[in-house]
Design brief:
Blueprint (H helix, E strand, L loop, with lengths): L2 H14 L3 H22 L3 H18 L10 H18 L21 H5 L3 H8 L4 H12 L4 H8 L3 H19 L18
Helix pairs in contact: 1-2, 2-3, 2-4, 3-4, 7-9, 8-9
Amino acid sequence: MSSSAKKTIKLVKGCVANERSAQEGLYKQFYADMLRLCIRYLKTNDLAKEALNQGFLKVFQNINSFSDEKGELGAWIGTIMIRTCIDLSRKELKFITDIDEAAIAENIFVSPAVLDKLYAEDLISMIRLLPDATQLVFNLSVIDGYTHKEISEQLNISESTSRWHLSEGKKQLRGLLAPKGTGNDYPTESNNGIR
């Protein structure tokens, strides 16, 4: 067993015993990764920090249910964080449910050359320009690999609504990524196209 695995087991046991030093160690070990995850899902850094803190509270309250059979500790904590972000943003989400299935275009092309020029922070800030519901579906599908069925179950929406939001997110991001004047300009937050 690696020293990292031993450290993780020790931290989990300490957290189960409600040891403050173990909780602090676990928080510090996963803080940066989980904050980045929360920032991907929520519109503001304040909301991301709120989700992070709520998520860690849930982690500490449920740490006794974690076992190695459930997978890696970071993945388990990440799942809790994603669900916390969904819960936090669900109150304000407004999903478009009147959808023409024929209007859904799953395969909107974005040139790899454009993507190569972007840094992670640029992508996150562009994804944050998407409407709340579209941003949430985009992150769940593209970033975290959830299927439309899983997304529909998590968010209590239909699979076609999930597909529409993913398609709309790709379309709007394509417009944000396209060079100006190419005919691919889509509304942006600055011109009130995205709410």
